[in-house]
Design a protein that fits this description.
With 250 residues, this protein is of the alpha/beta class. Helix content is 35%, strand content 18%. The chain is built from 8 helices and 10 strands. A 10-stranded mixed β-sheet has the order 4-3-5-2-1-6-8-9-7-10, sandwiched between helices. The model has no long low-confidence stretch (mean pLDDT 92).
Amino acid sequence: MATAPYNRILLKLSGEALMGDQSYGIDSATLALIADEIKNVLDMGIEAAVVVGGGNIFRGSDASAAGMDRATADYAGMLATVVNALALQDALERMGVTVRTQSAITVQAVAESYIRRRAIRHLEKGRVVIFAAGTGNPYMTTDTAAALRAVEIDADVLLMAKNKVDGVYDADPAKVTSARRFQTLSYLEAISRRLEVIDSTALSLCMDNNLPIIVFDVRAPNSISRAACGEKIGTLVAQHETALAPGGEQ
């Protein structure tokens, strides 16, 4: 692999990325593959932090749409991310990786409370830090939490690992057969087009802090380590001009 261009990354894992081919929950084989990929990133000398979603267990927006109080639904969703964080922590530790899980809501029996300086110190010591419970606030997505934590810990790039989504398209590829994937995309165009792969609040935060985002399919072979190495994979969202990938191919 090429020399890694990043010293510190933040990996955003959607909850769905942990499901594998299941319709719900955590697939142990998929979890092990993701943990192995994160270990490979560490072995390349890159510091790694992770934000996990919870959509494989509970999605606050869906519960709210069904009539549940929105704030309560969002807090339940935060607890789902804690479950995923602990599962990932265990998978990494079984591979010999030292891990610290920090939660934005207090669950001191199973995780540290989020403290920015402590998180950075863990990273400097070569530990993986998993950020759980989003930002700790309702009405905020875990995409926004990922952008916020990435900025706070001075990450060089935000890696958005999606499930069966290999980048950002100019239309929904599931509905429009001629949809083309962006190879590169500017923050402003992503916001103006209201592209739904990335949360608009997260996009704005990354734009304000000039933090590049790479959106890719976690199921692609070695996708996390390839993205961390700076390989052209998925869609790069940054300040530069927009370019469409030919034929929508990666």
